[in-house]
Amino acid sequence: MKVVPLRLTPGADLRRALETWMGEQQEQAGCLISAVGSLSVVQLRLAGATEATAIHGELEILSLSGTLSPDGSHLHIAIADNQGAVIGGHLCGGSLVRTTAELVVGLLPEWRFSREIDPATGYAELRISPQVPD
């Protein structure tokens, strides 16, 4: 595994920045190892929902996990508001960094992740395959 630290600055779209960065890498599979920071707005798709819910405020990132591939990601986030209330769900685009997002990403050179629509779920689900050497 190749481990890469990243820092996103205020105003960056957390999900889109990660997906853009992954698309620029030679590796075809990645995962989030660690994430801390804050958001001014988070767009969450809650369990069973079809649309994202926007939450605005001073939000702390407690946890961010998921997989990254050149053609998309699957990311879940838990955040706390300024009263300590915690909520989490599927991280959607439009989630903006407030002060910082400090991330550690693992790149998996021996694997290839891709997304394909799964007829059973209707979602673009993870497909895992060995990476063919160049």
Number of helical segments?
1
Distance between the termini: 18 Å
The share of residues in helices is under 10%
CATH fold label: 60s Ribosomal Protein L30, Chain: A
Number of domains: 1
CATH architecture: 2-Layer Sandwich
The overall strand count is: 8
- Name of the CATH homologous superfamily: Hypothetical protein, similar to alpha- acetolactate decarboxylase, domain 2
| Strand percentage | over 45%
Query: What profile does the largest beta sheet have?
Result: 6 strands, antiparallel
Q: CATH class, anyone?
A: Alpha Beta
- Based on secondary structure, the structural category is mainly beta
Tell me, what's the shape? globular
Low-confidence stretches: none
Mean pLDDT: 97
